[in-house]
């Protein structure tokens, strides 16, 4: 089915006979695959008698060679998949198989994209970026401190450099424009964090997605913010370069060197918030973060520190 899509991606008309010839199948088999493309990937295909078939709009697919051409300073090996359950899950399987880190896993779509706190990450075909960078961490806990916040900062900068000037951060690692989420980060770890471990840095960016009924929170995309479509290969390259720069600074200098820059870009600095931890809710005012990336809240006049992957923030109505 995806071989057929690759023949159609130029957005031009192709006759059933030519497509069948290229695939070595009958015209009716081509027809069946076209139906599948529409049903499974949500693509719209024009079918015109006497001219053949074409995609409603041309498609630029992810391509590791194009990414490498745009990213001079980033040379992680890249695996590009047409469809996978989750790039994080695939990255974890690759670690299990003994693949040498660092490496990057990208997919055109995810059938079970994972979000934080058990949520699903909506991942339609060829519209957004779903990527997982795998690092081997040997420096113990210090190399993990604030890591997910650093990734958020790199993603935010990649969006800004690409033209989404309003992108900012929300603790711990959401990237928002205004109140709407444009990118999310999910870190997963295997091994001994105090010794040697692998960390999977999963990044989802809403790039060209314009419509979906499935997302259960306020969201936006680069295209909705700017009115233009983005070349995802160029964006992956930009993201790779930003990640490389921020991660090496984090590795050498530690999170404390990045703390101030992170706070300057925190959209909810000084705001009245509720911190949600399971069924518990703590109301306070955001003071900032500490040198390890934990949240500093003023609660009842006293500064308190919070950290942990299951926490999330909401703005209070009176904020
Ligand atoms: C969040 O809930 O904000 C985190 C979303 C992380 C989504 C990305 S998409 C690529 C990678 N693979 C996954 O299954 N999830 C992450």
- Broad structural category: alpha+beta
Q: What bound compounds does this protein have?
A: biotin
Largest sheet: 7 strands, mixed
Low-confidence stretches: none
Helix content: 25-40%
Mean pLDDT: 93
How many DSSP helices? 9
The spatial strand order of the largest sheet comes to: 3-4-5-9-8-7-6
Q: Overall 3D geometry?
A: globular
Would you list the SSEs in sequence order as H and E?
A: HHHEEHEHEEHEEEEHHHEEEEE
Structure explained in plain terms:
It is a single chain. With 319 residues, the chain is an alpha+beta fold. The chain has helices at residues 2-8, 16-23, 27-41, 64-70, 87-96, 147-161, 222-226, 232-253, 259-264; strands at 45-48, 52-55, 78-84, 103-110, 129-137, 167-170, 174-177, 180-191, 197-205, 272-277, 280-289, 295-299, 302-306, 311-315. The strands form 3 sheets. It has a 7-stranded mixed β-sheet, sandwiched between helices. A 5-stranded antiparallel β-sheet has the order 13-12-11-10-14, with no helix packed on it. It has a two-stranded antiparallel sheet with strand order 1-2. A hairpin with a 2-residue loop joins strand 7 (174-177) and strand 8 (180-191). Helix 4 packs across helix 8 (232-253). The termini are far apart. The mean pLDDT is 93. It binds biotin. The site of biotin has 20 residues, from helix 5, strand 5, strand 8 and strand 9.
Short description:
The protein has helices spanning 2-8, 16-23, 27-41, 64-70, 87-96, 147-161, 222-226, 232-253, 259-264, and strands spanning 45-48, 52-55, 78-84, 103-110, 129-137, 167-170, 174-177, 180-191, 197-205, 272-277, 280-289, 295-299, 302-306, 311-315. With 319 residues, it is of the alpha+beta class.
């Amino acid at each position: 089915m995806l071989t057929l899509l690759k023949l159609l991606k130029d957005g031009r008309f192709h006759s059933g006979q030519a497509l069948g010839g290229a695939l070595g199948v009958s015209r009716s088999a081509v027809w069946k695959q076209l139906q599948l493309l529409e049903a499974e990937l949500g693509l719209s295909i024009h079918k015109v008698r006497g001219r053949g078939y074409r995609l409603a709009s041309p498609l630029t697919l992810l391509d590791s060679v194009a990414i490498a051409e745009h990213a001079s300073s980033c040379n992680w090996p890249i695996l590009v998949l047409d469809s996978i359950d989750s790039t994080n899950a695939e990255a974890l399987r690759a670690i299990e198989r003994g693949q040498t880190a660092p490496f990057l896993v990208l997919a055109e779509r995810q059938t079970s994209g994972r979000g934080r706190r058990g949520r699903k990450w909506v991942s339609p075909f060829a519209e957004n970026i779903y990527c997982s960078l795998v690092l081997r961490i040997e420096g113990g806990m210090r190399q993990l401190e604030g890591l997910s916040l650093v990734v958020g900062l790199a993603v935010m900068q990649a969006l800004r450099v690409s033209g989404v000037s309003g992108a900012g951060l929300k603790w711990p690692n959401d990237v928002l424009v205004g109140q709407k989420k444009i990118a999310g980060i999910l870190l997963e770890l295997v091994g001994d964090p105090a010794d040697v471990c692998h960390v999977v840095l999963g990044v989802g960016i809403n790039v060209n997605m314009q419509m979906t009924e499935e997302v259960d929170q306020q969201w936006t995309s680069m295209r909705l913010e700017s009115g233009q479509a983005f070349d995802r290969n160029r964006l992956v390259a930009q993201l790779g370069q930003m990640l490389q720069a921020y991660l090496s600074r984090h590795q050498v200098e530690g999170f404390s060197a990045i703390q101030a820059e992170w706070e300057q870009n925190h959209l909810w600095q000084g705001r009245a918030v509720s911190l949600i931890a399971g069924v518990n809710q703590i109301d306070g005012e955001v003071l900032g973060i500490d040198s390890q990336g934990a949240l500093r809240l003023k609660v009842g006049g006293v500064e308190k520190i919070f950290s942990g992957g299951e926490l999330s923030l909401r703005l209070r109505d009176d904020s």
